[in-house]
Amino acid sequence: MSQAFNLQEMWKNSCFLTRLVATSLNAAESAGMIIKVTTVYQLFNTIFQCVMTSGDLKIINKDLEGLKKDLQTEADRSAQAEIEKKLISAFGNKLQIVGEEELPLSYSQVISHDAHNEFNLSGKMSDVLLADKNVPEDLRFLTVEDLIVWVDPLDGTSEFVRAQNDPTLLDQVTVLIGITYRGRPIAGVIHQPYYNLLSDSNVSNITGRSIWGIKGVGVFGIDICKVSPPTGPFAVTTASHSSELVDTALKALQEENLICSFRRVGGAGFKVLCCLDGAAAYVFASGGCKKWDTAAPEAVLTAADICLCYTSKCKGFASPTEG
């Protein structure tokens, strides 16, 4: 029996949520490839162009106040188009996808055209499909109408832009795909395209890493570290949206000797990876955070049985239209 046949059988026998997570994993990795590969036109036979090494990131400032905290690059738009194309190809237009970027008409036309191509299963999707038997019963019968997919195609855009002068910042770039049911995150994918960049300066050699989780099933793609580093427990927090509430929380953690220090880093996805890699806490501000920023990270943390504490102002995802 061929591997392709086995994969098709696994796909056929898996519940919708499992298939959606498997496809999201594949889509996130494809988006990561678009972000970092020198020329993606040859790889994907689409309108997409190299965006990282060209020197021109085609940056758009989306911040209406002109504070340059909400940047958008060609990489964001190309990556989101790739994610939407793969999801629509697998599940059709009934799947509700909410992406951070508002794509120009030219991208929408490419998505519509390519999504009609035959959907292909990827070998790595088997890792997710194998976990289908562990999906809780209350999630097994969810359908395409029940779920919303939240996409941040390039979390950490500010770091991505500034990496032209400081390549170490690329480690903070992630691709986020979160899945919610009745407003709550139940599954998510975090792809880190530049993982281990410091160990190999050749971007083409960096395969990145993908972390995915489903509530009640667990987190995969990472060995969760539960031991503090020799320097003591530390927290990670926002580098761009700090507030008095954040500063108060950090001070309280230090006064209670729960942390020895804190680090300001970019990207909601990267901060969650820091927690899984050994950070003791993640202190975030609700200001500046949208559902496409938080759906995947919260789903992964929940799947890892990591405690989440909220203030009354930032708890929950009540409706698809809330920011």
Automatic annotation (TrEMBL):
It holds the Pfam family Inositol_P. Its cofactor is Mg(2+). One of its GO terms (molecular function) is 3'(2'),5'-bisphosphate nucleotidase activity. Mg(2+) binds at E100, D152, L154, D155, D293. Keywords: Coiled coil, Lithium, Magnesium, Metal-binding. Residues 57-84 form a coiled coil. PROSITE patterns: IMP_1. Belongs to the inositol monophosphatase superfamily. This is 3'(2'),5'-bisphosphate nucleotidase 1. It comes from Meloidogyne hapla.
